[in-house]
Amino acid sequence: MTAFAELMAFQRETEALGQIAGRLGWDQETMMPRGAAPQRGEEMSAMEAVLHARRSDPRIAEWLEVAEATDAVEQAYLREIRRSYERTCKVPADLAKTLARVTSEAQGRWAQARADEDVATFVPVLKEVVALKREEGQALSDADGDVYDAMVQDYEKGTTAAEIAQLFDALRPGLVDLRGRVLEKPQAKGVRGHFDAEKQLQLTEKLAQSFGYQMDHGRIDKAVHPFCSGGGLDVRITTRTSDDDPFNCIYSTIHETGHACYEQNIDKAYLLTPLGSGVSMGVHESQSRIYENQLGRSRAYTGWLFEQMRARFGDFGIDTPEAFYAAVNAVHKGYIRTEADELQYNLHVMLRFDLERALMQSDLEVEDLEAAWNDRFEADFGYAVDKPSNGVLQDVHWSVGLFGYFPTYSLGNVYAGCLYQALRRDVPMLEQDLANGKTSGATSWLKNNLQQHGGLRMPVDTIAHATGEEPNHLPLMTYLEQKFSELYDL
User: Fold this and answer.
1) How far apart are CA 104 and CA 27, in angstroms?
2) Per-residue DSSP letters for 444-478?
3) Residue ranges covered by each domain of the chain
4) What are the start-end ranges of the H helices in 290-406?
5) How many whole angstroms separate alpha carbon 325 and alpha carbon 306?
6) Alpha-carbon gap, residue 97 to 393, rounded angstroms
7) Which of 19, 319, 326, 424 could join 188 via S-S bond, C-beta 3.0 to 4.6 A?
8) DSSP state of 220
9) Count of alpha carbons within 13 Å of 26, Cβ hemisphere only?
10) Low-confidence ranges of the chain (pLDDT < 50)
11) Burial of residue 309, with CB atoms counted within 10 A of its CB: 0-12 exposed, 13-18 middle, 19 or more buried
């Protein structure tokens, strides 16, 4: 075997073990008995030790030294393996193992603290997570480097915190201005009634399949915090139900379906290779957000969805497709990021970005996090947080050490704006198809232009290749301005 072939065979086994580790995390969120948490922490720690040892194996450096790529795909393989090797070697094995154990335990502590509305019981373990992540960031960054920049590279390689902050500074004024004008207008009437959970799940399974989700390579389960897990031939999603709010289940499912279809549609030649998953969380989020918002909340698609809802739930207080479209896109007060309307969603992300950046740079301590969150929320949204589950305890991310992840949600919205502009240009029958519940024109375009390529290109290059232009925030703001100006007669 050549050095390249030996390296790829070794990498394939590492990727397979990584999928197994991910399945442990999926099980912990969906089916694991609560009492198993301490043992699961040890299992996750053991898996991380094995993965860390493989990813930092000295033979990788030897193979990389002599391996020769014959085309762009092989060059990308070597690029990603080299990147992973260099980052892994900077993090001590004991630290990686401890992080896996502590974050597994912290996830259970977070869930209980959230249920009990008790921040104090979560603070000690979050302090431990933050201390470990700071240590990891210091190991990954240069001597005078930004610790938070090192965190961001795990989720959006090639992007810095300063670039993200600059983007957010460009987005914020337009968002705040548009929100102010919208909130001066009468708000749309919402749905009312009792929505049977089983019927919600039946509907959302149909919706997921209508967007191209392949159930023979996936499954839909319930979890506290909806997510997508896995890759290749096994991609699973979760959702949640609310008896009086079916939109929670519907749009959580469509959102996660976007993530899942990205993974399922990657070229199978990349299966269990460094290119066999989404290139970044920002690009991943562009898929979930364009499925959920530009497609799933469009006037055309909601007209079809209105009839699906009426067939299953009867009268739910809304009589026309137009009123249903307004209800789906209502701008309203709320605390929860995942339930926020398109207009305000990015403001929730910006709050988290600033707080976690301050935590990683030691400008904010965990003991002061709840107060900082509450102060910032009231300043940004104009009303006070009423309970921890609607505030600092609402998201799972920090408990599992995902610092640097939050800004990718807004990067995904920016990318989705660019993709939607190109999609409308290239798919002339888009609106007509969506009005009939058909998404194949849109999803085929996304598969062909972006999803099938997996991690072949860097994130920004992935969007530029799909759209023909470098990504920027203007298409998103144009889309939002047009949509909400029309909805609210601005």
Assistant:
1) 12
2) HHHHHHTGGGTTSS-HHHHHHHHHSS---SHHHHH
3) 3-140, 161-487
4) 299-313, 321-328, 342-360, 369-381
5) 8
6) 25
7) 326
8) E
9) 21
10) none
11) buried
| Token duo for residue 47 | 């898996």
Report d(CA 462, CA 202) in Å as an integer: 34
Long-range Cβ contact pairs of 382-385 (< 8 A, separation 24 or more): 383/333, 385/335
Specify the CATH number for 161-487; select among 3.40.50.720, 3.30.70.3420, 3.10.129.10, 1.10.1370.30.
1.10.1370.30
Q: Which amino acid is at 78?
A: L
- Give the whole-angstrom CA distance, residue 27 versus residue 87: 28
Q: Provide the residue type at 203 as one letter.
A: L
Burial 124-141 (b: 16+ CB within 10 A, else e): ebbebbbebbbbbbebbb
Residue 432 is which amino acid?
Q
Edge-to-edge strand list for the sheet holding 234-239: 220-222, 234-239, 228-231
Cα distances (Å, whole numbers) of residue 414 to 73, 213, 327: 27, 24, 24
Chain segment 110-160, per-residue pLDDT in tens: 999 999 999 999 999 999 999 999 999 999 987 667 899 999 999 999 999
Write down the pLDDT at residue 143. Answer: 62
What pLDDT sits at residue 224? 80
**Scanning the structure block, which residue is given the tokens 């992840």?**
405
Q: What pTM was estimated for this model as a whole? A: 0.93
- Given 80, 105, 156, 256, which residue is catalytic? 256
Summarize the annotated binding site for Zn(2+) as residue ranges.
255, 259, 285
Give long-range contacts, CB 8 A cutoff, 24+ apart: 184-190.
185/488, 185/489, 185/490, 187/330, 187/331, 187/332, 188/323, 188/326, 188/327, 188/329, 188/330, 188/487, 189/317, 189/318, 189/323, 189/326, 189/327, 190/317, 190/327, 190/330
The residue whose two tokens read 């058909």 is 438
Quick one: pLDDT at residue 324?
97
Token duo for residue 458: 């860097």
Q: Which two tokens stand for residue 210?
A: 């209508």
Give the DSSP letter of residue 270. Answer: G
3-state SS assignment for residue 440: helix
- Nearest-angstrom CA–CA distance, 196 and 187: 26
Binding residues: 255, 259, 285
29 is catalytic: no
